[in-house]
Amino acid sequence: MLWPVETRSVSPVFVGRNDELDTLNDALERAGAAEPQALLLGGEAGVGKTRLVEEFATAACRRGAVVALGGCVEIGADGLPFAPFSTALRALRAALPDELAEAAAGQEDELARLLPELGEATSGRHDEQGMARLFELTARLLERVAAERTVVVALEDLHWADASTRHLLAYLLRTLRTGRLVVLATYRSDDIHRRHPLRPLLAELDRLRTVRRLELARFTREEVGRQIAGILAAEPDPAQVDDIFERSDGNAFFVEELAVAGAEGCCTGLTDSLRDLLLVRVEALPESAQRVARIVAEGGSTVEYRLLAAVAQLAEDDLIEALRAAVGANLLTATPAGDGYRFRHSLVREAVADDLLPGERSRLNRRYAEALEADPQLVPADARVTRLASYWYQAHDPAKALPAALDASVVARRRHAYSEQLRLLERAMELWDTAPEEVRAALRPVDYTDVYPPCGCDPATTPLRYLDLMAEAAVAGRFCGERERALKITKKALRILQDEHDPQRAAWFWVQRSRLVQGLARGDGWQELGTAQDLVRGLPPSEVHADVLANAAAWSMLHEPGPEAFAAAERAVEYARMVGAREIELNARVTLGTLMVDAGDVEDGLAELERVKDAALQEGVAHVAGRAYTNLPSELESVGRSREAVPVQREGIAFARRYGLLDSEAWVWGNLSESLYALGQWDEAAEAAAGALGSAASAKPRGAGALQLAHIALARGDTAEAARRLAVARAHYGTHDPMPQAQLPVARIAIGVAAEEGRILDARAELDRALAAGFPPGTHRYGWPLLLAAATAEADARAVPAAAEGRAEALDRLAEAARKLTTGAPLWQAYERWTRAELHRARGTGTATVWSDVVTGFERLDRPYDLARVRRRLAQALLEEATGDDERDRATELLRLAGAVADHLGARPLAEAVALLAQRARLTLTTRAAARRTLDPAERLGLTSRERDVLRLVAAGRTNRQIAEELFISPKTASVHVSNILGKLGVAGRGEAAAVAHRLGMFPAEALDPTR
User: Fold this and answer.
1) Pairwise CA distance, residues 623 & 132, whole Å
2) 286 — phi, psi (to 5°)?
3) Is 699 helix (H, G, I), strand (E, B) or coil?
4) Under a CB-based contact definition with an 8 Å cutoff, are residues 490 and 512 in contact?
């Protein structure tokens, strides 16, 4: 029979959306100026999102942009991992083959997880950075492809996106920095209920200032009239417009359906349900076309023609005739590649799928699965396993669904789609008990597991156990950030193991639990590691045993370094070698080399770290190489060899960036900042610290970056910024997992901030907390700067009345701590002399001889700021003891050198101290900057003579009433003067004002003596 002539159901006229198009075109223009753009386009189903994207894409192509479209794929209840990104990258490769190949050069094996056409994805190592590594490489790939040509990446239907796709999109939108790139993503806003997984992502992206969010509204009556006119190619009757507008409520897709139904005379007798309207359109088709529509609806977002033919089991002519009818009625449409079919709108597909009977749905899924098993080439290779798992699961056949889910979990793991791996493993655990025993007995660990070592059993012959699935799921949960789910699985596994004698497997799960507890900020993980050690103690060497020891040694190195950590590291290396666990051996050797340096065996420890780094690079163990690049230069810095550390750190940053080791890169950035600070390259140090904040995937390396910025701000005299950065660092470090390498530097900066703000009692409290915690072996690199900061604070507060009580005890505690701290390198020998010199100054017993010894120690080192500070102190001591011109001449030269360094670094407090000392001693420093600084501090601050007198009394600790009595003014006038002084000094309170006055040396000590 002849099918009726089709009625056009998509308006050739683009209606409305002027504001939205303007926004999209503005983003395109900005991207063309190398300012990457990110936009989210939301709206209810059928409101016109796809049509808007198509219109924008057409306009972008006319302006020379390359447009890559990708859509999230729904297969039953499952989303295909990374589907929209894979599709978009495939489109980019087709449009810009040379550019994409060049951008992916060297990383093809990793990027093949998203785009299999680039080559074979290597199995590689699976770890918590694996997914972030892939995300970083993908973001940089897009930036490089869009370096010279504007590229639009449009991702549709985010409401169907799998977790890995959501995570990748979030990472991309957070980290886009360069390139002529527009990323546009669409989603159904009416599908986003309170528990929808997209909802948290939208909330997160709303907080990014770089992301613009658009919401498509329904059409107005006027716009509905224009749309109907376009569909009918004639001006509609106003009554018809009113009716359609009322029934569609302005939804563009429903306007189309109602307009076509009215034109075909199908409105009579219809209910007001728009879903019924859609089904009436289907029911008007011949029976064969209806049958095909039902098959396509259950097959997924898109169904390949050959797969459809295998499932429909119709003669080819009959199938083509049925498809022609469905396409002619605008229910189905051919895919852009011309190899399959999809519903013209997902609302129609959902209506048809919802109308299927339960038995009908499972039968169709079984036929899809059987067809795919009979001929795997029916669908693209990268989607085959996932779709088969979905079809068998929806067919309610546990015998087939269990192995299919496990196969799909392996593919998800290979693609670093750990969220999908976890979901599939949980499905496998759900199916485990219902699957026949013979099916479970045929499964083997070698085919499906990766994380738990064999430990004496043959994974090729030993049956797969439920505990194997739990192990994989626990690790997948940790890798994808679902730590709560992973911890729940781990606890359940340990309960099962209570009834089984399997200490190695139990120890392995306790190690996982330790990592999860730390990741969830519920403890430091040591109790769990201790349990694991107890379980393997006395057992023959095994990979699990070696791994437990390696983890215990690494934990101890960071938390309680010392002989026990050293012994654990040595045993971990020995056991790993005995069982051939090369990766564990190299990792343990990084720990061992670090502990060797900290214990004083500097050269051998550094040589061991260098050997491990070279071996890890040669053998392709990227995560160990990343750790070596972190620890080796850090240990060089720990012994004062900053200049040697810098090139290793720059090499490490390049390596970590190339392999997407985000946390390794962040740690190296932080270490580089420390080295550059020591070398007097403060601007570069600040940039490196910002690099740590910007590249880190987890909190602790961000804490290190923030702390370095606090250190620089403090040295430059920006106390408020230092305090802010210190608070940020503390928040990143947290309180659940204290480590000396974090807590001691935090305490040092806190002491410095408190001292600058005149809070000497708070500084002492910080010191007391640090001394109570102690300095474990190997932490002298953090201990000496802390003791120096505390001793300097005490010396600077010597004339402050509020500091008098408790000073002697504080100085005694400092001296005792300094006596116990090791000085195994020239740097720390110099720090020891400096700390003792500050203690002498705090007691009023400092001499030029003492300070001369300190200067001599630092003149041998490459630390210009430290040298400038002690030269200033020596100059002060020489001037106090001067009996002739020789001491004055030497002091002048010392101050000139110190002032030059302070000027270069922007170290304002040191520069002001140098200038003031020169002014008081009537010394002429040759630099213009020094001459400019010799203005009286009160003049520079804009203080009147009366305000200067008031500030002197504030610094002496006087109240407003006491100030009024001494200066013969009213208390109210004194209060006004104090308020003016606080404003001019830019401080919040009297203590801070006193600290500023003291730091600038505005009043000699005797002027502050309250007994005068």
Assistant:
1) 13
2) -60, 155
3) helix
4) yes
- Arithmetic mean of pLDDT, 718-726: 94
φ/ψ bin of 525: left (φ > 0), alpha (ψ from -120 to 50), beta (otherwise): left
- The residues near 568 (Cβ < 8 Å, ≥ 6 apart) are 549, 552, 553, 556
Q: Identify the band that residue 978 occupies on the pLDDT scale cut at 50, 70 and 90.
A: confident
Read off the pLDDT of residues 49-74 as tens digits, 9 standing for 90 and up: 888 888 898 889 999 899 988 887 66
Token output for 135: 């995300």
Reported as a single tens digit per residue, the pLDDT across 456-515 is 567 677 888 999 999 999 988 888 888 899 999 999 999 999 988 889 999 999 999 998
Q: For the chain, what percent of residues have pLDDT higher than 90?
A: 45
Contacts 24+ apart (CB under 8 A), 941-945: 941/984, 941/985, 942/984, 943/981, 943/984
Strand ordering across the sheet containing 340-343: 303-304, 340-343, 332-334
Contact 551, 577 (CB under 8 A): no
Identify the residue with better confidence: 247 or 23: 23
As a whole number of angstroms, the distance between CA 723 and CA 729 comes to: 10
Residues 6+ apart with CB under 8 A from 704: 666, 667, 670, 692, 729, 742
* Mean pLDDT, rounded, for 227-255: 78
Token pair listed for 571: 């045993």
For residues 670 and 705, is the Cβ–Cβ distance under 8 A?
A: yes
Tens-place pLDDT, residues 828-840: 999 999 999 999 9
Per the listing, tokens 């983890």 go with 551
Contacts of 677 (CB under 8 A, 6+ apart): 685, 708, 711, 712, 865
In this structure, which amino acid lies at residue 771?
L
Contacts of 356 by beta carbon, 8 Å cutoff, 6+ apart: 294, 297, 298, 364
518-540 residue pLDDT tens:
888 788 899 999 999 999 999 88
What would the pLDDT profile of 644-703 be if each residue is shown by its tens digit? 999 999 999 998 887 778 888 999 999 999 999 999 999 999 999 999 988 877 888 999
Handedness of CA 94, 99, 102, 104 (dihedral sign): negative
Give the C-alpha separation, 924 to 983, whole Å: 32
Q: Which residue has the tokens 């720059």?
A: 650
pTM: 0.75
Strands 37-43 and 211-215: parallel
- If DSSP codes are grouped into helix, strand and coil, which group holds residue 334? strand
Give the list of residues 6+ apart from residue 39 with CB closer than 8 angstroms, or none.
23, 24, 27, 182, 183, 184, 185, 211, 212, 213, 214
Nearest Cα to Cα of residue 743 among 558, 605, 923, 602: 558
710, burial (CB in 10 Å: exposed 0-12, middle 13-18, buried 19+): buried
In order, the DSSP letters of 340-400 are EEEESSHHHHHHHHHTS-HHHHHHHHHHHHHHHHH-GGGS-HHHHHHHHHHHHHHTT-HHH
Angle CA(633)–CA(635)–CA(637) in degrees, nearest 5? 70
Report how far apart, in Å, the C-alpha atoms of 831 and of each of 20, 86, 391, 634 are.
63, 56, 69, 18
